Amino acid sequence: xxxxxxxxxxxxxxxxxxxxxxxxxxxxxxxxxxxxxxxxxxxxxxxxxxxxxxxxxxxxxxxxxxxxxxxxxxxxxxxxxxxxxxxxxxxxxxxxxxxxxxxxxxxxxxxxxxxxxxxxxxxxxxxxxxxxxxxxxxxxxxxxxxxxxxxxxxxxxxxxxxxxxxxxxxxxxxxxxxxxxxxxxxxxxxxxxxxxxxxxxxxxxxxxxxxxxxxxxxxxxxxxxxxxxxxxxxxxxxxxxxxxxxxxxxxxxxxxxxxxxxxxxxxxxxxxxxxxxxxxxxxxxxxxxxxxxxxxxxxxxxxxxxxxxxxxxxxxxxxxxxxxxxxxxxxxxxxxxxxxxxxxxxxxxxxxxxxxxxxxxxxxxxxxxxxxxxxxxxxxxxxxxxxxxxxxxxxxxxxxxxxxxxxxxxxxxxxxxxxx
Length: 420
What we know:
The chain is α/β, with parallel strands linked by helices. It has helices at residues 2-65, 79-83, 136-151, 168-172, 181-200, 259-272, 321-324, 329-352, 364-368, 392-406; strands at residues 68-74, 93-94, 105-110, 120-125, 128-130, 155-162, 202-214, 217-220, 237-240, 245-248, 254-256, 275-276, 284-285, 288-299, 304-314, 378-385. A hairpin with a 7-residue loop joins strand 12 and strand 13.
């Protein structure tokens, strides 16, 4: 009996010792968990603060570069231009090979209109100049920071401007083998938003819409075909000055979550876009196409919200009516196109001059984009030009317009102050 009692006491002492040891281990583990939790919270706080600094620095860099920028892109000479004697395929553009204007300047040589009249040379400089050999990936690398600004909660407009047949639609849409700015922008947006969701707890919702402005009328390029005998829906643009948002009545807005969905929408829209044949191009865009991506982001951990807008716009081709051979409906289209492009220039100049009245309402295009022009919005214009003497005069007109835009400064940043 005594032996059993001693054994029992020994077992109890051993159990108490094990329990005490485990209690100490548990307390130590709890302390480690608490320390790790504190370290994780501190790391998450530093990541959040770092992201705030990144966004602020990124925005400052974009503003220092200019809230409105102009890039010039020169297309290659086409095979048809090289093969046909009907085309004057001699080059009219020269690029600096050294100095400060390398990659920023070019010279256009315009033949005289009269016999014996000397060729006139005109020099231009822009924020960036892409020669005929520059690929889509090189061009997009220069605008990807602006695309990031939209994901950070800013309003961004990227235009493609230029004469008919100068490569605007190729720049914006590209081909399956060489995607343009719109598909590349979508890939970047979705990739970046996914990384932010995985690493920082952001959740994004995105809606895409596509419109065209044709003969000063809005047209929904994603709308279902109207029933026979019914009129297409009329669209009205409504601006909320308090929230800075824009809505368009009866406009089709599609939730998108991956680039492939956007690619399908682009294909659908392009089938409905207004095109026509002129003396300058067999397939000439007769409308301004506006692709809009609205981005709403929310971080549940910090309760921070962002709302950005990315507008990617393929403008109708600028052209002089006498050269395009336009008559009838084509004449009406050309007049509407030129009027709206002129109105766009007037708006940009009024913003740069800080005029009290900015004539947004002079064009359906500028009125639609009103909240995304001026203020803290970021605007970039591609001026697309053809390289040959056949189109030298049209290229000169395009580059003169772009030079006026490039001379504008909208809300330039005067001081830089960044705090973590």
